[in-house]
Design goal:
GO terms for molecular function: monooxygenase activity. By secondary structure, the protein is α+β, with helices and mostly antiparallel strands. It has 17 helices and 26 strands.
């Protein structure tokens, strides 16, 4: 079968290619640039699950490239509204150019990924057997195509899909600054700081640490106001630093700055036949601290395993319809949550400004909500759940779900493989489904003792008989699960079901539903050799 074609070599496109390679699916990544990742002001805050996702894809130095946040603080004037200590490695702040370089290095070491630079897509065609892509230089043939080519996506335009939304939901001036601040490792949002108000440009600033003594500052500006001039930016920076240093401006180095307007947009569809959209090509969201890249990486993780099952003939094309159902619905719920929270947290009209005393009370009551998007919590930031049949169920953003609720992202717990190797649950994701038995006392005994005891023999055979790739693991304990619970987990870490005991027919049925409900057991395509990026003549591609 032909490789999967990915248009766009940003973080989402590269992550998708690496995720497909982990599933033994070849891909061609068409990059319209020269493969250079210049240093800039853009950065992202990654949650623990997305950091782990990128680590298992081969970006091994990600922790060293970023800075773990140790706490979050929200202030208004001189009053603290919220202080949250953060567990180690829960949140990682990373410059986007470092992320891009790390993923490119991982791709260069992945034999199943072919990265092609200076390849501007001109035309996309699809038929019943695959997709043909015409660049300025040649034609490429693939089994499927994924557009990860950003807000101005050529793929989306080729599909004639609309991209409606708000062209200016928020406005920021950002800068990266090297300075010695009195709260190392802490991220903070400060609203109505007296010196900041006196500077006259912005009423709100967010500071997040990066490695090597560098910080990213985001000053929120009124929507529609022109960008800060260089002199006004320096005034804002000096006022911000003085406000955190008892009136004194410490030594600093302004490294880079940028002005950007946050858009809120959503493509009308994420799939048309064999062509898909992911990342910024599919959605834009970033108000109230939400991380659009985080959502783009969830797109990649969700789509990769589904494409892999279809590519290996372990599922039908019907499974791929669940990508749009799950991911687009999750983004819609996220955007709806922003629309509900914005009036409480971001007053923008003269009438609301005149009622600041009321809004100050609202801000105190909603200080946690103001931080949820950045911290990856609640309706603005927590991972969605995908309950039930993948082609029918709507995602949930409820933070109160149990770890054994169908569709939730599973917590990371210690596990043991059937050869006795200790590991972490999330480190085993991304190759196939996981069957996990909760069996207290497992680590006390050698593997040869418990492998043939209790449920293990029956569960071993049931796992081998599943209609898709699967691995059997054992864990001492899992939150909310009693002993002898069996968990079936998707390759992207979302729980299919938690059942008591092992009934092979029930486990098979659950796995079959998770792959889209195929009526028959397909024969895996298996060993056919496929050359990533095979070129085809134009006349054959058009046929």
């Amino acid at each position: 079968m032909d490789p999967v074609i990915i248009v766009g070599a940003g973080p989402v496109g590269l992550a998708l290619a690496l995720a497909l390679a982990r599933h033994q699916v070849p891909s061609v990544v068409l990059d319209d640039g020269a493969g250079v990742s210049p240093e800039g002001a853009r950065s992202t805050v990654l949650r623990a699950d997305t950091t782990e996702f990128l680590t298992r894809l081969g970006y091994g130095r990600i922790a060293a490239d970023g800075r773990a946040l140790n706490s979050w603080r929200t202030l208004r004037r001189s009053r603290e509204l919220l202080h949250l200590p953060l567990p180690e490695e829960e949140l990682l702040h990373l410059a986007q150019h470092r992320l891009q370089r790390g993923l490119r290095d991982a791709v260069s070491a992945a034999p199943l990924v072919q990265l092609v630079h200076d390849s501007v897509v001109v035309e996309v065609e699809q038929d019943a057997d695959g997709v043909s892509v015409h660049t300025a230089k040649t034609w490429w043939r693939g089994s499927h195509l994924v557009g990860c080519d950003g807000p101005k996506s050529v793929v989306r335009k080729q599909l004639q899909l609309r991209f409606p939304g708000r062209a200016a939901a928020d406005h920021y001036t950002v800068a990266t600054v090297r300075a010695d601040l009195p709260f190392p490792g802490e991220a903070r949002l400060h609203r109505d700081a007296p010196r900041l108000l006196h500077a006259g440009g912005s009423r709100e600033v967010t500071a997040r640490p990066l490695p090597d003594g560098v910080w990213r500052f985001d000053w929120r500006l009124p929507v529609g106001r022109p960008a800060l001039t260089p002199d006004a930016l320096v005034e804002q920076l000096r006022a911000t630093l003085a406000g955190w240093h008892e009136g004194e401006v410490p030594p600093y180095e302004l490294i880079t700055s940028a002005d950007y307007v946050v858009q809120q947009r959503l493509a009308t569809r994420f799939q048309v036949g064999r062509v898909f959209l992911a990342g910024d090509a599919a959605h834009l969201l970033g108000s109230l601290g939400m991380q659009n890249l985080d959502e783009g990486l969830r797109d990649a993780d969700n789509l990769a395993w589904k494409l892999a099952l279809v590519w290996h003939n372990c599922a039908t094309e019907r499974l791929l319809t669940s990508y749009q159902q799950e991911r687009r619905s999750a983004v819609i719920a996220r955007l709806r949550a922003v629309d509900q929270a914005m009036p409480l947290l971001q007053p923008s009209t003269p009438l609301l400004e005149a009622r600041r005393s009321v809004l100050s009370g609202s801000l105190r009551r909603n200080a946690t909500l103001l931080s949820d998007g950045t911290l990856g919590r609640g309706r603005l930031g927590a991972a969605p759940a995908y309950p039930g049949h993948p082609a029918q169920a709507r995602p949930s953003l409820s933070p109160g779900l149990s770890p054994t609720s169908p569709g939730v992202l599973v917590p990371d717990v210690p596990v043991v493989t059937t050869d006795g190797t200790p590991d972490r649950l999330r480190a085993r994701l991304g190759r196939g489904f996981l069957v996990v038995l909760v069996a207290p006392g497992t680590t006390v005994w050698a593997v040869e003792h418990w492998l043939g005891a209790g449920l293990m023999p029956q569960l071993t055979e049931a796992t081998r008989a599943l209609p898709l790739p699967a691995e059997l693991l054992v864990t001492e304990a899992y939150p909310s699960a009693v002993p002898h619970t069996v968990l079936l987990i998707r390759p992207d870490g979302h729980l299919v079901a938690a059942v008591q005991g092992c009934r092979p027919d029930d486990l098979w049925t659950l796995a079959d539903r998770a792959r889209g409900g195929s009526a028959e057991l397909p024969t895996p395509r298996g060993g056919r050799d496929t050359v990533p990026g095979e070129r085809v003549p134009a006349d054959r591609a058009r046929a």
